[in-house]
Amino acid sequence: MYDLLRKYEKPLILIVGCAVIPALFLSFLFILELPYGNLTALLDDPVWGIPAHLLYLLLTGWLCYCLYRIGIKTIEKQLLLYDLGVLALLAAVAIGLPYGDVSQLIGALHVVAAYSAFIWMNILFYRYVKTETLFRNIYILVLLFAFLHCLTCGAVTGIAEIVCGIAVSVMISLLAYKA
Prior knowledge:
Structural class: mainly alpha
Radius of gyration: 16 Å
Low-confidence stretches: none
Number of helices: 8
Order of helices and strands: HHHHHHHH
Largest sheet: none
Distance between the termini: 22 Å
Number of strands: 0
Strand content: under 5%
Shape: globular
Helix content: over 70%
């Protein structure tokens, strides 16, 4: 089984990262209350709560896997595992803490963990792809779009999260495929 996975690892990276994950993010468009709903709202939803938790944990695992494949070529393994461990911990805390109808402290901790995970993911992305200027420039444009969209709406929106999620998935999958 392991040999079969190793044989088809690169095509699976492309299929999952460039087709399956973007399709999942696009399906969120039908679930969210657009344009103001965001992906965090799915965590507190009584119907979508458990599937959203599982899906977000799987997406975090996919992000760490692809960043591992990219980073193993550029930095030493021990530092890479530390970096990805911090990212996974921050993301798991953000996914695990509710945001909605709870105390303000827990909601604030969720926001801090989510933003910290996002910033840490960006630091890792830029650290691991120093030489890939095309991907960095595209990613900066995607972040600029998301920032301006959120600024216009006055809150973090689902559209901005979905666009960033699709862009990150496709870019890290292509880079992991190349690695």
